[in-house]
Design goal:
Blueprint (H helix, E strand, L loop, with lengths): L32 H6 L8 H6 L9 E13 L1 H9 L15 E10 L4 E8 L7 E8 L7 E3 L4 E10 L2 E13 L2 E5 L7 E8 L5 E9 L3 E12 L4
Antiparallel strand pairs: 1-2, 1-11, 2-3, 3-4, 4-5, 5-6, 6-7, 7-8, 7-9, 9-10, 10-11
Length: 230
């Protein structure tokens, strides 16, 4: 994924190569669930990433990230899956694009077993695209992401080269108290999101979707800052 960076890089955004010099995060109300899933490798992450994913969010409490999409690339098959996915809330980018403003809200929701993630993409020629999902702590891998219609994916959490990596590990649909696994051919493929600490106080999310037969069908990167009021 690092090799893809030049296609998306924003002017002035350079990866941080050294360890953070910030003091270790110490606060009341720490949520260790992401750390527990990552295991001992959690301590290899930059301080700011560990802090960002250790906030305890009470019901209704939220974090706000503001930033800009650096670029979105989609194959024809990627566009097709994005349109079909409108049936479950349009969780994939709807169009290839250059830079555009984006806002992410992370809201505590223990009634759903985790956090609600709301992503607002401010498109120039039409209404914003709003993507909403629930990151739920549970299931076979300890973490799931669920969108509309009871459709979800199991997620694994790992640390690679000081990045925090979320990777899909199978899809399912829940209805009438049952859960059915979806075959690979019926899904867009492996979804991977890499969370990376950047320089100049920024951080990034790198999204890739790799189809089982067609290979990479979607790439997107977005750069953010935490809302200063937090």
């Amino acid at each position: 994924m690092r090799a893809e960076r030049n296609r998306f890089a924003l002017k002035g955004v350079v990866p941080e190569n050294g360890r953070s010099n910030a003091h270790e995060f110490r606060a009341h109300g720490v949520d260790n669930r992401f750390a527990d899933l990552a295991g001992a490798a959690w301590n290899d992450l930059p301080t700011h990433i560990r802090r960002r994913f250790s906030y305890h969010l009470a019901d209704g409490e939220r974090l706000i990230y503001v930033g800009e999409v650096g670029g979105t690339h989609m194959s024809l098959l990627g566009r097709l899956f994005a349109q079909v996915a409108r049936l479950v809330g349009a969780p994939l980018p709807l169009e290839a694009s250059g830079q555009m403003p984006v806002t992410v809200l992370v809201t505590g929701c223990e009634s759903q077993g985790g956090q609600v993630w709301t992503r607002i993409y401010h498109r120039a020629r039409t209404f914003p695209q709003v993507i909403q999902s629930v990151k739920r702590f549970g299931g076979a891998t300890g973490l799931e992401e669920i969108v509309g219609g009871g459709v979800g994916m199991r997620l694994t959490l790992s640390v690679h080269d000081r990045d925090l990596v979320f990777r899909s590990a199978g899809y399912f649909v829940r209805f009438a108290g049952m859960q059915l696994s979806l075959p690979d051919w019926l899904t867009p493929g492996v979804i991977e999101v890499i969370h990376r600490e950047e320089s100049l106080g920024r951080f990034s999310f790198w999204l890739s979707v790799t189809h089982v037969w067609a290979g990479r069908i979607i790439d997107q990167v977005a750069f953010f800052r935490e809302d200063s009021s937090r």
